[in-house]
Amino acid sequence: MTQPATLNPEPSSGAYQPAAWSAVQVEAIGSQTPAGAPLIGEGDFKRIADDLDVWDAWPVQQRDGHPAALEDGTTLWMALGAPRFPDPDERHGHARIHLLARRGEDWRHLGPAMPDGFSPGSREWSGSAVLEPDGTTLTLYFTATGRRGEPTLTFEQRLYRAIATLDRESDKSPRLCHWRDLQEIVVRDPVLYMASDAGAAEVGRIKAFRDPAYFLDPASGAQYLLFAASLAGSSSEFNGVIGAAIAGDVEGKEWRILPPLVSADTLNNELERPHMLQRDGLYYLFWSTQRHVFNPEGPMGPTGLYGMVSERIDRGWRPINGTGLVFANPPEAPKQAYSWLVLPDLSVTSFVDEWGAGESYSGPRRFGASFAPMLRLVLSGDGAWLDLRA
Questions:
Q1: Which secondary structure element, helix H or strand E, spans residue 276, and what is its range?
Q2: DSSP character for 331?
Q3: Triad 204, 76, 125: Cα angle to 5°
Q4: Dihedral angle of Cα 338, 341, 347, 353, to the nearest 10 degrees
Q5: In this predicted structure, what is the pLDDT of residue 225?
Q6: Rounded to 5 degrees, what are φ and ψ at 383?
Q7: Which residues contact 91 (CB under 8 A, 6 or more apart)?
Q8: Could you tell me if 277 and 59 are in contact, meaning their C-beta atoms sit under 8 angstroms apart?
Q9: 322 exposed, middle or buried (CB, 10 Å; 0-12, 13-18, 19+)?
Q10: Left if phi > 0, otherwise alpha if psi is -120 to 50, otherwise beta: which for 56?
Q11: Distance CA 338, CA 335 (A)
């Protein structure tokens, strides 16, 4: 397996200083008028498959974060998938990671990524995947939720790594085979992070230890995993944080858990799918969150993409645009998309949630369950906004 050329497992300071995302910053959102995402209509997206809902997607990436392309330009992606249910929230209890192929604007479903019975959880939640320069060795970082075979679904979340071989014979669709080396790589530190099964067993109130996102620091060669978590020892139900771990070896078999990079304690319950990129000497840390997981006793931001920026990973994080908000769903469709992921070329992917205008609808919920139109960001220093010309 080809590894990073260098590895510096410790920043020069060796001390991580979490940044607070505060109520004062969120309250200032009301005085801003950032451009919202364009309204998504019924003709702006199409399903991947008639019998499959998909959400929370990520590309199979190179170590530098760019999507890994096959010889014909196809890129491989992963997404959570489940059968269609009358209540879309049921999908979370049946989620598996699926493999997809993208060429241009066309998507092809290639089936579940991992074989039946391989994952240690009762379902699989979000993660990230890295294809090595050999073009065949793939590392998947993912969330194993619950325990395989449990009679009643639980919300315990564990962070795992597994290795697969990418088989891309010319006469077949790409597939992942020879799964091996399944390992729980980041074990929760109870001093830093609350147990993920300690919260209420309902969507929006569960606690987090999930969504591992791989990041290779181009400055030091250090490898990080970022993840959504909940702060230990908090007196508030709204104790979401962004956690991190750092690899202690070039193979990525040994990881050391770190204190949170960002804390929204007392403000927000879920800072979901955190991810990072470096551009023009700055690090940008992004996450998604929803209006209904803000503390109702304080200021509540819209459902949108949020972030912080710093000159270094271990400290100095400050909110993008002064508030943290990068962009939100349009006011007339406040729930239309979610789970934004910023790629190194500043394109932004997400999935279609409750599309169409209106806070609530009569009749069945309009769950898009597919990829939303790609957006594009502009980054400039501490500022970030949508490029609506793209």
A1: strand 272-279
A2: T
A3: 25
A4: -20
A5: 98
A6: -105, 150
A7: 53, 55, 80, 82, 83, 85
A8: no
A9: middle
A10: left
A11: 7
Tell me, what amino acid is at 56?
D
Which residues, at least 6 apart from 339, have a Cβ–Cβ distance to it below 8 Å? 55, 56, 57, 126, 272, 273, 288, 350, 351
Q: Is the dihedral of CA 291, 208, 227, 57 positive or negative?
A: negative
User: For residue 198, what is the DSSP state?
Assistant: S
Query: Would you state the structure tokens that stand for residue 15, as one six-digit string?
Result: 């001390």
Strand-strand pairing, 375-380 and 347-352? antiparallel
Q: Which two tokens stand for residue 253?
A: 């078999």
Q: What percent of the chain has pLDDT over 70?
A: 93
Radius of gyration (Cα) for the chain, nearest Å? 20
The pLDDT, as a whole number, for residue 97 is 98
* CA distances to 35, 38, 75, 378 from 388, in Å: 8, 8, 25, 10
Give 208's Cβ-side CA count (13 Å radius). 34
**CA dist., res. 43 & res. 41, Å (int):** 5
Residue holding tokens 């006793």? 297
Contacts 24+ apart (CB under 8 A), 150-155: 150/122, 153/93, 153/122, 153/123, 154/122, 154/197, 155/196, 155/197, 155/199, 155/201, 155/206, 155/207
Secondary structure of residue 25 in the 3-state scheme: helix
Tell me the residue type at 25: Q
Fill in the amino acid letter for 44: D
User: What is the number of alpha carbons within 13 Å of residue 93 lying toward its C-beta?
Assistant: 14
Contact 328, 37 (CB under 8 A): yes
Using an 8 Å Cβ cutoff, are 287 and 271 in contact? yes
Tokens coding 249? 């070896």
What does the pLDDT average to over 284-291? 98
97 residue type, one letter: I
> Diameter of the chain by CA atoms?
59
Q: How far apart are CA 237 and CA 109, in angstroms?
A: 39
90-131 pLDDT, tens per residue?
Answer: 999 999 999 999 998 899 999 999 999 999 999 999 999 999
